[in-house]
Amino acid sequence: MMGFNGDPLSGGGGDGAGGNSLSSGIRGLLRRKQVDSNRVTTESGHPKLAKELSILQLMAIVVNLNYTPAVYFGVCVIPNRFSFALKPLWVSLQTGIKHFNAESVVPLGVGSTIGAGVYVLVGTVAREHSGPALTISFLIAGIAAALSAFCYAELASRCPSAGSAYHYSYICVGEGVAWLIGWALILEYTIGGSAVARGISPNLALLFGGADSLPFFLSRMLIPGTDIVVDPCAAILVLVVTGLLCVGIKESSFVQAIVTTANLFVMVFIIIVGGYLGFKTGWTGYELPSGFLPFGVNGMLAGSATVFFAYIGFDSVASTAEEVKNPQRDLPLGIGASLSICCSLYMLVSVVIVGLVPYYAMDPDTPISSAFASHGMQWAVYIITAGAVTALCSTLMGSILPQPRILMAMSRDGLLPPFFADVNRRTQVPVKSTILTGVCAAMLAFFMDVSQLAGMVSVGTLLAFTIVAISILILRYVPPDTVPLSQSFLGSIGPIPSYSISQENDGGNQINHVATSSAYSNNSLAKEEASVDYPLIVKQLNQEKASEQERRRIAAWSITAVCVGVLSLTSGSSAAYLPIVARYSVCGTGGILLLCGLIALSCIDQDDARHTFGHTGGFICPFVPLLPIACILINVYLMINLGAGTWIRVSMWMVVGVFVYVVYGRKHSLLLDAVYVSTEHADEIYQNSVEYVA
Q1: How far is CA 624 from the centre of its chain?
Q2: How far apart are the C-alpha atoms of 330 and 312, rounded to whole Å?
Q3: Residue (of 178, 185, 164) closest to 653 by Cα position
Q4: How far apart are CA 539 and CA 631, in angstroms?
Q5: How the protein sits in the membrane (predicted)?
Q6: What is the CATH number for 406?
Q7: Residues of 107-139 as b/e, b for ≥16 C-beta within 10 angstroms?
Q8: Which of 13-27, 445-459, 481-495, 579-593 shows the highest mean pLDDT?
């Protein structure tokens, strides 16, 4: 069950040759690496990234990422049955930012609307789904995004290393799931960067006077004899951004801050001038006979599902955790403050634009500039287009930034070649991975119209959101109770006692009983004497241990029931091809499993180990288990509705990933020869080793 029950590698032989091989493969997929700690950081020996990011720079990165290519190209989920999946859960973001300095939040928080999604989403969603209720759609979507943000904030503060969702799932779930998440994120960021780059050139052309106004060497052109339209401008922009990211995280974040400032002026212009026009004209967009909800509540909720993707971006920031000066404080505050301010400013823009022009008269491609033009302000088109171009450029940088860090994290764990883990000593940036990422994205942007592939970006994002929420449940109820010790570490400290659990080997599952040193022998002898002198205490301890094991078993099955229930409920509600009786049966079964799992998790106690898991003293996700389960439900529902074509393409990419893992990753994993020891025994081993530094 996803590595829930104690040590994923525990167990012995005796299954036969075939059974051993199958068991070895399954256990290999479930092996989990050690959670971040000062001890792990000291031992790793990997070159470290530069800790240059402050909370203000984090916010600048977060706000520039609140946009996804799937939104820009219109590849969005438009469900008509979203009422149960977006059940209002009013959770205040003040939980995470109540101690934040408002003086620091305000200036960069205003720039959080620079996500280019707002430039194109307003018209499409208002025309087809929300009408004047667009503001409420943004609010509901913001609340839904906050659920994932809360989960990310806790894991980012507990496990502040590069890798984002890949890193968290490797610690909490297992190597197999972590590999799939990392592989999906590689696809997400590659296609995302290429898609954004292809969207810049037409907007840039508008600043020069029209669609064909770019210089010849930057203009799109059709290759004779083919249907391929190349985009030199997109490829050049990707390479320029790649070069900037290779210079250093501090320098690139400085450029992000400049872009944020430029977009700040554009968005302030839209809100202030648009508000003035609205009061001058009487807010004609709200004086309609169809009322505030022309498409009903279902239309408003369908609009929320669409604009939800405008909030995506904070997950990319988690991949820079290793470069944050104070991750326990800055990561949660940066994510929470930026997301809340982003929601507020999205709502302000939608209030103004919907009030200037009736929703049915909006231009779906350029809603903001056309709204100003309809009031005689043609010159405003250039200001707004400039804002869209700078927003897309910053989003391009945010799309390329995380992928080298994902590759680096996977390489550090042995799942990819060491080439990707190389960090430049001068810039303290994974330069080789960054260059490779940039070249691939540039080639894709140059040759391919990636708009049809942009839906695949959403799969990677939503899958990561789902696994992070599941990881929160695992962390709280069944956190890993074993620690992997490398062979190199064991060799450096000498013999350890016979409670070392197991060593995984692809040829079979072995149990290694190592000779016991005198220090440990004395300790074990003392415990045996204590058991003779105080039998009642020992009996009570054994009962408590049995009770704890039973609690973990119930919690593991409950989490499994939640996952199966969510999948059944969302699949059944979206399977229009099934007979009505079958759909109701599947939905009913899923709903019962989901409800039973939620009730069970609410009734049992959370694991005490959560208080010492990873780096402590950071953000704690509230309302567990309700909040993570709601997050899982929303994200799985959105994934289910992405369409068959998208899932076929994603499945092909995942098959390639499985092949790479089987051929290389499984055989080179750093956990291949690891010995798993219970947490309490691991602490004892570390304290008695000469390498341990308190």
Answers
A1: 19
A2: 19
A3: 185
A4: 42
A5: Multi-pass membrane protein
A6: 1.20.1740.10
A7: ebbbbbbbbbbbbbbbbbbbbbbbbbbbbbbbb
A8: 579-593
Phi, psi angle pair for 460, to nearest 5°:
-60, -45
**Which are the contacts of 177, defined by CB distance < 8 A and separation ≥ 6?**
2, 29, 169, 467
Whether the CB-CB separation of 263 and 390 falls below 8 Å is answered with yes
Say if residues 91 and 43 touch (Cβ distance below 8 Å): no
- For residue 664, the 8-state DSSP code is I
**How many other C-beta atoms lie within 10 A of the C-beta of residue 54?**
17
SS3 call for 160: coil
CA angle 357, 359, 365 (to 5 degrees): 90
287 CB neighbour count, 10 Å cutoff: 11
pLDDT digits (tens, 9 = 90+) for 117-134: 677 778 888 988 899 999
Residue 358 has pLDDT above 80, yes or no: yes
Does residue 120 sit within a domain? yes
> Please, is 551 exposed, middle or buried when counting C-beta atoms within 10 Å of its C-beta (0-12, 13-18, 19+)?
middle
User: Does pLDDT of 382 surpass 90?
Assistant: no
H helices of 380-499, in order, are: 380-400, 402-412, 431-447, 455-477, 487-493
What is the C-alpha to C-alpha distance for residues 423 and 413, in angstroms, rounded to an integer?
Answer: 15
Q: What is the rounded distance in angstroms from the CA atom of residue 585 to the CA atom of residue 573?
A: 10
Indicate the SS3 state at residue 494: coil
Q: What is the DSSP letter of 508?
A: E
User: Measured between alpha carbons, how far is 676 from 512 in angstroms, rounded to an integer?
Assistant: 10
CA–CA separation, 641 and 658 (whole Å): 24
Query: Tokens at residue 312, please?
Result: 């995506």
Q: Which residue has 């400032």 as its token pair?
A: 261
Q: With respect to residue 499, please indicate whether it lies within any of the assigned structural domains.
A: no
| Residue 654 in domain | no
- Whole-structure pTM value: 0.81
Separation between Cα atoms, residue 202 and residue 214, nearest integer Å = 9
Q: Residue 210 belongs to what domain range? A: 103-478
Residue with tokens 């062979």: 487
The Cα 280–Cα 92 span in angstroms is 35
- Sequence-distant (6+) residues with CB within 8 A of 153 are 96, 331, 332, 335, 336, 619, 621
Q: Is a pLDDT exceeding 60 seen at residue 228?
A: yes
* Local confidence band at 587 (pLDDT 50, 70, 90 cut-offs): very high
Predicted local distance difference test score (pLDDT) of residue 274: 93
CB-CB neighbours of 630 under 10 Å? 22
Is-cis flag, bond preceding 625, omega within 30? yes
Phi, psi of 504 (to 5 degrees): -85, 135
pLDDT exceeds cutoff 50 at 76: no
681 assigned to some structural domain: no
Q: Is residue 50 very low, low, confident or very high in pLDDT (cuts 50, 70, 90)? A: low
Q: How many domains does the chain have?
A: 1
Look over the chain and give the mean of its residue pLDDT values, rounded to a whole number.
77
The whole-angstrom separation of Cα 439 and Cα 484 is 37
Mean pLDDT, to the nearest integer, of 531-540?
A: 64
pLDDT band at residue 68 using 50, 70 and 90 as cut-offs: very low
What's the pLDDT score for residue 65? 54
Q: What are phi and psi of 483, to 5 degrees?
A: -125, 130
Show the tokens assigned to 692: 């341990």
Of 75-84, 158-167, 590-599, the least confident: 75-84
